[in-house]
UniProtKB/TrEMBL annotation:
Protein name per UniProt: Enoyl-CoA hydratase
GO molecular function per UniProt: enoyl-CoA hydratase activity
Catalytic activity: a (3S)-3-hydroxyacyl-CoA = a (2E)-enoyl-CoA + H2O; a 4-saturated-(3S)-3-hydroxyacyl-CoA = a (3E)-enoyl-CoA + H2O
One Pfam family per UniProt: ECH_1
Keyword terms of this UniProt record: Lyase
Family stated for the protein in its record: Belongs to the enoyl-CoA hydratase/isomerase family.
Organism domain of life: Bacteria
Entry-linked NCBIfam families: PRK05862.1
E.C. numbers: 4.2.1.17
Keyword Lyase: yes
C-alpha cells in the first residue's frame, strides 16, 4: 500500500509505523488518520505480526491534531466529518501496540500515545493536552484516558492549564511505561516489541482485550470476562506448548493458535 504521511516497515514479527510529516511536527490530519488506521489494520490482520511500534521523529511524536485543518470548521462539521472517528479503529486493533515517544506528544499526539498499550518515552519527551490554549478541549480521548492513566488531579491540572510535562514527571505520574535515553528509544522499542511478538498471539489478544476492558467495565464484569477469556486459552495449542515447555525446562515454540 502507498501511504502519504507515514513510513511502514516490517522487521521480523514487528510492524513499524513512523509518522512522517516533519514540516508540521507530525500534526495529525485526516490523511494521517487514514494512513495509520490502514497500516495498523493491515498489520492486525497479518498472523505473522505479533506487535506494532508507532513512532514519530526525534523532535516530535506528534504535536497534536492538525490545527490548520480544523481551524475553520464549525461544530457540525467536526461532529459529522471524518476527522477523528477513524482513531477508534486504531484503538481497537487487537495486536499490542507500543508507542515510542520522542519529543512532543501534545494534544492528539498524547491521546494517540494513550491509545497504545505500552508507552516508551525518550528522556526528551514532552507530554501535554494544550487544547485549552486554543479555546477547545481534548477531543481524541484525552479527557477520559488521561484521568485513568494519571488520576483526576494530575489530569485536571494538565488539561486546565495546558502545560507540558517532561518524561520524568510523566513516568512518576504513570503515563509512561518506561523512560529510556533518547538515543536508545528505537532499539528499546524494537526489543520490547520483539519480546511481545514472541509470545502466543491468542494469549496476546486475550491479554489486550482484558486490559482494555479494565479501563471500561465494573470490577465484577471485568473479573467475569477474565475468567472466561483465561479458560478459553486452554483450548489453544500454545497453552499446551507453553506449559509443556515449562515442564521440560525449554523455551516454548508458539504457533499462534
Ligand atoms: C498544525 C502544527 C502543529 C499542529 C506544529 N505545527 N504543531 N501545525 N497543527 N498541531 C507546525 C507549525 O505551524 C510549524 O509550521 C511547524 O509545525 C513547526 O512548529 P513550530 O511551532 O515552529 O515549532 P516550535 O517553535 O519548536 O514549537 C513546537 C510546539 C508548537 C511547542 C510543539 O509547534 C506548538 O505549540 N504546537 C501546537 C501544539 C498544540 O496545541 N497541539 C494541540 C492541537 S489540538 P509552519 O509552517 O507554521 O512553520 C488537538 C486536539 C485533539 O490536538 C483532538 C481533536 C479532536
Amino acid at each position: 500500500a502507498e501511504y502519504e504521511t507515514i513510513l511502514v516497515e516490517t522487521r521480523g514479527r514487528v510492524g513499524w509505523i513512523t509518522l512522517n510529516r516533519p514540516e508540521a511536527l507530525n500534526a495529525l490530519n485526516t490523511q494521517t488518520m487514514r494512513d495509520v488506521v490502514a497500516a495498523a489494520s493491515a498489520f492486525d490482520l497479518d498472523p505473522e505480526i505479533g506487535a506494532i511500534v508507532l513512532t514519530g521523529s526525534e523532535r516530535a511524536f506528534a504535536a497534536g491534531a492538525d490545527i490548520k485543518e480544523m481551524e475553520s470548521k464549525n461544530g457540525l462539521e467536526m461532529l459529522m466529518g471524518d476527522h477523528f472517528g477513524g482513531w477508534a479503529q486504531f484503538a481497537a486493533v487487537r495486536t499490542p501496540v507500543i508507542a515510542a515517544v520522542s519529543g512532543y506528544a501534545l494534544g492528539g499526539g498524547c491521546e494517540l500515545a494513550m491509545m497504545c498499550d505500552v508507552i516508551l518515552a525518550a528522556d526528551n519527551a514532552k507530554f501535554g493536552q494544550p487544547e485549552i490554549n486554543l479555546g477547545v478541549i481534548p477531543g481524541m480521548g484525552g479527557s477520559q484516558r488521561l484521568i485513568r492513566a494519571v488520576g483526576y488531579y494530575k489530569a485536571a491540572e494538565l488539561i486546565l492549564t495546558g502545560r507540558m510535562m517532561d518524561a520524568a514527571e510523566a513516568e512518576r505520574s504513570g503515563l509512561v511505561s518506561r523512560v529510556v535515553p533518547a538515543a536508545d528509544l528505537l532499539d528499546e522499542a524494537g526489543k520490547t516489541a520483539e519480546a511481545i511478538a514472541s509470545k502466543s498471539l491468542p494469549a496476546l489478544y486475550a491479554a489486550k482485550a482484558t486490559l482494555d476492558a479494565a479501563m471500561e467495565v465494573p470490577l465484577a464484569e471485568g473479573l467475569r470476562l477474565e475468567r472466561h477469556v483465561f479458560a478459553s486459552l486452554f483450548d489453544t495449542a500454545d497453552q499446551k506448548e507453553g506449559m509443556a515447555a515449562f515442564r521440560e525446562k525449554r523455551s516454548p515454540d508458539f504457533q499462534g493458535r
